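Table S2 (continued). Query chain:
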Amino acid sequence: MLNTTLHTKINLFLTLLLVFCFPLFVKQVPFIIALLFLNYLLEARFRVKFSSLFAERKYYVFLFLFMIVFYALHAIALLYTENKAAGYFELEEKLSFLVFPLIMLPIYSHRFEKKRLKLFFFTYLIAVLSASFYCLGQSTLNYMQTSDIQEFFYSNFSVIEHPTYFSMYVITAMILVIGVLIRQWSKLLLWEKILLFSLIPFFLLVVVLTNSRSAIIVAGIILMGSVFFPAIKKRKYILSVLLFFMLLASIFIAKKAMPQAFNRFSGIVEVLKADKMEDIKHWNGTTLRVQIYYSSMEIIKENFWLGVSPGDTKDELVQNYKKHGFRHAVERNYDAHNQFLQSFIGLGIVGFLLLCCIIGLPFFYAIRERDYILFFFTLMLFFLFLFESMLQKQAGVMFIVFGLIFLSSRERIFKD
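Corresponding output:
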């Protein structure tokens, strides 16, 4: 059997590798998770691990239980799903809800020294910067061949991962930078402050280039929050007003400079003006969501308590689209485009409430502890969940579950 120190070193190396691979090599992430789990099993000492976890009576014990039960509901739903293949695929995709809580929370010897936090921070930033420059480089090369400005936007730009998921990685990097600036301001050197500040507009630019509506909205909300909260807290109200108008001016300039990035918001005004679905005449990605949400709510009303099972969710949605003549939604085989609705359809009220707890518990803990990084991370997830079914791809599930556990239980993972 390997000694404790070696298990700790293996765990540190693999976790750092995991953090580095999320933005760059997401297809290799499941393999790294498997190695982490193997290391966890080989260390054994399960009784000590779990007794240590539950003895502390911290809030992350509930996070541990909520995630395990959420996964268990997916397994139980196989009993009443009709599409067994899709049901087993959902179970495989959601495996992070079982594996990460086991690997990261009932730890025994894998507690890292607190100084390692900086190593994780820089590892992730380097990975996101590398991925961003790679996307910019690819878009530049393609533009030189085609002279088409669209090479710098949406899926043409985000060649590593789907634009919304890639945006999530970039926004998380921006959150980490903002969190460090807020909490460590007095300890940072001048050149460190300048470097970190310069990363924020760069990351914001990358998010705009991904052209993901939900991500751009989320980035804007987080940026406003990070600007106003510290200023208001210190009662610098005039500064808050000035910063607000500066932000509005920046948005106006960005809209003039890159109209392509804002064209995808054109349907929002039409949706807000419409009294009923028939009033919407121009269908695009934004207005199509109205159809999808209408169908989702109808299915929820009919399957409120148990849901239709995660495996049957998409089939039920497509059937409802057909019933109402939502041709575009049928052709594209759309999911609910809202993770809260997606989970409600699949698992009923219990699954919906569990998902709310998995997001809400770290959120309120962050407010109590004034943890800016965890606060903005959970805020990001909340808004992304409102616009996208972020847990329907393994790339989203792995990153989100890891991020929630890692950021909300840093005091357990890292020791002084």
